[in-house]
Amino acid sequence: MKVIAFLTDFGLSDAYVGQMKGVALRICPEAKLADITHGIPKYNVLWGAHILRISRRYFPKGTVFVGVVDPGVGSERKAVAIVGEEGNVYVGPDNGLLYPSAAEEGIKAVYELNPEKAGLPEIAHTFHGRDLFTPAAALIACGVNPASIGRRLSADDLVKLPKIPRKPKVMGEAVRARVVYVDGFGNIITDMGTSELRNYLGVKLGGIVQISFDGGRTWVSVKYGRTFSDVPEGSLVLYEGSHGLIEIAVNRGNAALALNPARDVLMKKAAKQLNR
Amino acid sequence: MKVIAFLTDFGLSDAYVGQMKGVALRICPEAKLADITHGIPKYNVLWGAHILRISRRYFPKGTVFVGVVDPGVGSERKAVAIVGEEGNVYVGPDNGLLYPSAAEEGIKAVYELNPEKAGLPEIAHTFHGRDLFTPAAALIACGVNPASIGRRLSADDLVKLPKIPRKPKVMGEAVRARVVYVDGFGNIITDMGTSELRNYLGVKLGGIVQISFDGGRTWVSVKYGRTFSDVPEGSLVLYEGSHGLIEIAVNRGNAALALNPARDVLMKKAAKQLNR
Amino acid sequence: MKVIAFLTDFGLSDAYVGQMKGVALRICPEAKLADITHGIPKYNVLWGAHILRISRRYFPKGTVFVGVVDPGVGSERKAVAIVGEEGNVYVGPDNGLLYPSAAEEGIKAVYELNPEKAGLPEIAHTFHGRDLFTPAAALIACGVNPASIGRRLSADDLVKLPKIPRKPKVMGEAVRARVVYVDGFGNIITDMGTSELRNYLGVKLGGIVQISFDGGRTWVSVKYGRTFSDVPEGSLVLYEGSHGLIEIAVNRGNAALALNPARDVLMKKAAKQLNR
Fold first, then answer.
1. A125 chain-B contacts, CB cut-off 8 A
2. Cβ separation of C12 and A38 shorter than 8 Å?
3. Are A135 and A183 in the same domain?
């Protein structure tokens, strides 16, 4: 029994996800359907790729992942199925969404989907998720060889995008990172990993980091902790979150409401520590 | 193995949908549960009926559909199960929500549900979705004959509402349609079909349509394309969307934010084309 | 075949719920996964406990419930599995979230989860829902004895919180209750049960209640009905809702938008009735 796991930027208000699920059940009734999320910010292929990559490891081996963050739907961009070396398959647009996951697993084979073999009889120009990607994934989940519904490509031909985490930019004694996401709790997620924090700022667990969202005019001190409750209720904490990235939160509060974050965040080691 | 597919205006913040799923699993553990959507705008029976009708074809034959957009819950409106000629069953309130789907499939039989036979032992006056419609659907999914939990009605007795798409109103050289929905991408969906666009305005694919949301005071030119990427990033495009209706979008943007649509939209062929 | 049913305050925009589902399917592929809701207001353990308690009865016997409203994640609070006398199991933080459900069912045994036996190899300090509670629940759903992944506790050791419904505070001829939730329809849900309404105010079905959200300066008259359609469209109605609590709604409208409710609501019997 195979799992088909969906990741999109469709949200759940509309019937787009529901129709994809219907198609999957129609083509492969025995598949188990699961959602990674449908809340990827619209058109944000980069973040979708990161979430798919960090989420895939929690699913059973042999899962068929359908990823649809697809601003170029209906254009010339390819539709692909990538078979991984551990048995997972990644189906979606060739726009960089699937590549980091597949590359991390190891790429066994890449196929460009043939809409006539892999898709529904009618394919809407605006909805390949329903009419091409999901049918292809459901066929594969039910045992169809991807080679029979697409033509072989080289992994070199796949579109690649910059990967998260990224190196911060050094600016004097501070570094500049990017805010890549704010989650439903208001936790502010940066594109910086823990090793970057330690290497560039030299701050240890329990130390203090100063952060600025206005280019360095005002700074806020934040404790570098392990979890929310390492600081008092209502206080800021900086920690490695479950996305594998440095996050800023308020214990039992909403950091995004408290700080009104901009796209760039500057970080530096607090002076007190520097003087030690 | 049967699929039970849900469509409601309940949203997903509350536990209403979750409780319905529990009831379904309790009564018919082997059923597969699926969601069409729970994001139908509150009380909008007309749009719910359209979404159910265009979505049903993507589900396996023999699906039991539970539709709950039910502003009259607890009142005199009937609770019904409609058996379709292709083997699907539609369960919900008799308020026009189910009729277009059932009529399109062909109506084999209609039953008014008997709450004592079809419902839970206690039926909340405000939540027939959980206490009556879902139990009835789960019984039917597990093989119970609808005739044994309800009494036969004539299809003529069912409530019918106007159907989408609708004919636009001709107003000089323009036509007036209605905005029936704005989706999560900000795409503006009208109640006009493609044949109406072509017949009334005589615009061909690739042509230009002028649209107005303020009764004709200001007009915006929009290309009639096949998909978003038929226009440059940030530009407006008018196209037949996956709802089978004329939609207006911004390529990689949000048309509702750009245009602030009112309920009525006027459309006319661009002058340049008329002079050709 | 076991059901694992999830209740959290995670929302559905992020991938947190999706990763928990993946973990469950990986550990116990034959489990059926269901959602009660992920829309519990952030950190509101009290409301989460109420929703879990009123929802659990709709699920099949033997369901493993995973509850995660967990502001103290990563702190000293215990992780527990509570086995109920009817065969359900409740897994989550020991912060009062699970207790009302388990106590209502009857508590057979309580175990403090051993992260090394019950959790994933790596446990994020900020996400026990994915790395500890869900793995434990999936093991239990697949037949593992909770005693083998935790150590026995006494039910007396569990954290207990005040229970909903609560007694209103008598203030002259009025009573004061609390607004505990506003649902997706804008229905205003109080912490007062029907028996409290009848006992303290002496209002009968069909009678009129006066309510105030500003400490008694202004009052609005509301009919005490059974369901929305007991009042004309657009009118207020007070009724026992499906949460087992007194709610205030607008028939086919949004009471929260109409009334802008504060945290406290005063209620008194309308003068006309008192004079009868």
1. 226-227, 239
2. yes
3. no
Same domain for B146 and B235, yes or no, is: no
Q: Which of A13, A25, A73 minimises the CB distance to B34?
A: A25
Within a domain: residue C64? yes
Give Cα C259 distance to the centre of its chain.
Answer: 24
pLDDT in tens, chain B (276 residues): 799 999 999 999 999 999 999 999 999 999 999 999 999 999 999 999 999 999 999 999 999 999 999 999 988 999 999 999 999 999 999 999 999 999 999 999 999 999 999 999 999 999 999 999 999 999 999 999 999 999 999 999 999 999 999 999 999 899 999 999 999 999 999 999 999 998 999 999 999 999 999 999 999 999 999 999 999 999 999 999 999 999 999 999 999 999 999 999 999 998 765 443
Note whether C25 contacts A32, CB cutoff 8 Å: yes
Task: Name the residue range of residue C194's domain.
Answer: 169-269
Contacts of B67 (CB under 8 A, 6+ apart): B7, B8, B48, B52, B90, B91, B92, B93, B97, B98, B133
Measured in angstroms, the CA of B29 and the nearest CA of chain C are apart by: 8
Chains near B, with 3+ CB pairs < 8 A?
A: A, C
Region A22-48: mean pLDDT is: 98
Instruction: Name chain C contacts of B41, Cβ cutoff 8 Å.
Output: none
Same domain membership, residue A220 and residue A191: yes
Q: Which residues pair with C222 in a beta bridge?
A: C209
Domain end call among B103, B122, B157 = B157
Give the three-state DSSP class for B98: coil
pLDDT at C276 over 50: no
Q: Is residue B25 part of a domain?
A: yes
In a shared domain, residues C175 and C153: no
Q: Are residues A151 and A173 in the same domain?
A: no
Are B35 and A29 within 8 A, CB to CB? no
- Cis ω before C115 (30° cut-off from 0): no
Q: Are residues C41 and C65 in the same domain?
A: yes
Note whether residue A274 is domain-resident. Answer: no
Which residues neighbour C197 within 8 Å (Cβ) at sequence distance 6 or greater? Answer: C203, C209, C224, C246, C267
Q: Which of C242, C251, C252 to mutate to test the interface with B (most CBs of B within 10 A)?
A: C242
Pull the structure tokens for residue A52: 């798919």
- Tell me, yes or no, whether C119 and C76 share the same domain: yes
Overall number of domains in chain B:
2
Q: How far is residue A49's CA from residue A34's CA, in Å, rounded to a whole number?
A: 17
State whether B58 and A130 contact (CB < 8 Å).
yes
Identify the pLDDT of residue B17: 98
Rounded Cα–Cα distance for residues A38 and B74 (Å): 34
Query: Nearest 10 degrees: CA dihedral of A222, C43, C8, A66?
Result: -30
Q: What is the ipTM of this complex?
A: 0.96
Average confidence (pLDDT) over A63-86: 96
Residue after which a domain boundary falls, among B129, B157, B185: B157
Q: What is the CATH number of the domain that holds B211?
A: 2.40.30.90
pLDDT of C272 reads 65
Q: Tell me, what CATH number does B117's domain have?
A: 3.40.50.10790
Size of interface A-B (CB pairs under 8 A): 92
Both B54 and B125 in one domain: the answer is: yes
Pick left, alpha or beta for residue A110 (phi over 0 → left; psi -120 to 50 → alpha; otherwise beta): beta
Asked if residue C162 belongs to a domain, the reply is no
